[in-house]
Amino acid sequence: MKLILLGAPGAGKGTQATRLADQYHIPHISTGDIFRANLKEETPLGLKAKEYMDQGLLVPDELTVDLVMDRLAKPDCANGYILDGFPRTLVQAAALDAKVDIDAAINVEVPDEKIVKRMAGRRVCPKCGEPYHTEYKVPAKEGVCDRCGSLLIIRKDDEAETVLKRLAVYHDQTAPLIDHYQAAGKLITVDGTQSVEAVTDAITTALKA
Ligand code: AMP
Asked: Of 59, 170, 175, 199, which one's alpha carbon is 20 to 30 angstroms from that of 111?
């Protein structure tokens, strides 16, 4: 099964991708995670990507496409994969279309107001990477990581100004992919405002159909 998850930043793509990857026994490939891992290791790619990520902008297609194509060539992708956060531009979609025939593009739909509210509450542990939320995943002690006791931070790309920029970029560059996959007869749209479990159920039901 070769799947793509579409949707605005904060729509819950990462959560759904993890669940679907478990369910279908396929790797979850998140370009955001790959860039963040590179940044942590301070690789040249990570440092370059940071310039864009911190501003809420997309990393240029030429860096992103090669990275994903290399990843898709790995043996664990032989039976499929779930792409989370790629493609994000029509250029990236065309590069993917040229190499693979995906089964479905799942659009997790959440209105902008809800996205802003969700992202404003995000916190992360700078040491172990554990994610938290001021409403949905509250740590036992406010502002402190349950796992390692470090003080939680707001990721630079979750800061209010960056979130608004990321949403604008999403509408401008990524939302056109919805029409692209609709035209290809591959689009599945689900209501991303439901519970995590209900969103997964909606996706798996649509995939069976
Ligand atoms: P994410 O965790 O998917 O929201 O990605 C975090 C950031 O990584 C984005 O705001 C972009 O700066 C960058 N990024 C992730 N995926 C892509 C992509 N497919 N194309 C360009 N930039 C990306």
From this structure: 59
